[in-house]
Amino acid sequence: MDMEAIQQLNDQHIINTYGARKLALVRGDGVRLWDAEGREYLDFFAGIAVCNLGHCHPKVTEAICEQARTLVHVSNLYYIEPQVNLAALLCDHCFADKWFFCNGGAEANEAALKLARRYWFQQGTPRPDVVVAEQSFHGRTMATVTATGQPKYHQGFEPLLPGFHYVPYDDIDALTEAITPEVGLVLLEPLQGEGGVRVPKPGYLPAVRQLCDDNNVLLAFDEVQTGLGRTGSLFAYQNENVIPDIITLAKGLGNGVPIGAMGCSDKVAEGFSPGSHACTFGGNPLSAAAALATFEALVAPGFIEEARETGNYFIQQLVELATGFDCIYEVRGRGLMIGVEFDRGVAPLIERMLAAGIICGPAGPTVLRFLPPLIVDRAAVDRVTAALRAGLEGLGW
Ligand SMILES: *Cc1c(COP(=O)(O)O)cnc(C)c1O
Questions:
Q1: What domains can be seen in the chain, in order of their start residue?
Q2: Which residues, 6+ apart, have CB-to-CB distance to 43 below 8 Å?
Q3: Which of 32, 305, 361, 367 has the fewest CB atoms within 10 Å, i.e. the most exposed one?
């Protein structure tokens, strides 16, 4: 099908939650994508931090095909071999002792929110309230959109869930003030993604951990975007060695096959008991096999270290470029999760990049965001930096 035919069917039959799209991408290989017209692109967005190993990674493709020939789905009423192997491997590399599998980020956070409430209920001391950060993003279900500290996502969906409190991100005093005896959970991204690629000051996350310990409050890190090597460590909590009680994963977990996960300590896991939570598809044979192959590749010796070095190089190139452009406020990020904040809207710049064959995206109206596959090399980074310079010059910024 050509682009026009795809667009026409889309407009006729797809509910318009995404607006007009610029491309119909039909094929991918590594960091490259092709559209319906056969035009090639360099992908510096990776399906929003999903295809961390690049498109159609041979090991993941092989695992998917093999599992599809063997068994695609059985329910969680039965033991699932790829799922238990995935959980065991995650445990080898993460603080968590136990996992619950679901289909994506919102469901993983939903599970975390329910687990925290249920945990305090089981303890006999209900502490149902949750503190979250402004400019956070935790998903689009009713509970997770409530947890998302951005009014634009709330509009028209009120009444939101009760018991949520919003504090400025990276402000330990504000968080301290928000902790009351009703609060049982603090939910944060260790580095905010959709809210503008915001890296907290060194010491903030350790102070949050201390505050939660002092007040007997659970701490959950939403690592849906930051996890799986994105920030130059396998998990962002490892950057400052701050161990949460609960972690949520999704995006990069299956390298494109939908799967989410919530992990926690043995103690916190006791909040759930048979019947208290469930998910039909969660960790089914197909998605678990894809995630297992993905995770094995991520933890191969040297893989994440190399991605971290490429990220450092990219940030350094962008910082250098920024010195020549007053319209750039700040270059920030960690590993290969990078934002460039401008003094104006970045939509025309993203379009220029696309015209130059480079896919990137926004994080809010004024932040240009790069989330390339972790396999990206310096030559690709150089191409993107050069295209960005040309784009800025072309726009007369
Ligand atoms: C994308 C994202 C989510 C939501 O994930 P879905 O799979 O779209 O439900 C939640 N939290 C963070 C930090 C995200 O980046």
A1: 3-57+302-395 (3.90.1150.10), 58-298 (3.40.640.10)
A2: 28, 31, 32, 33, 51, 55, 359, 372, 373
A3: 305
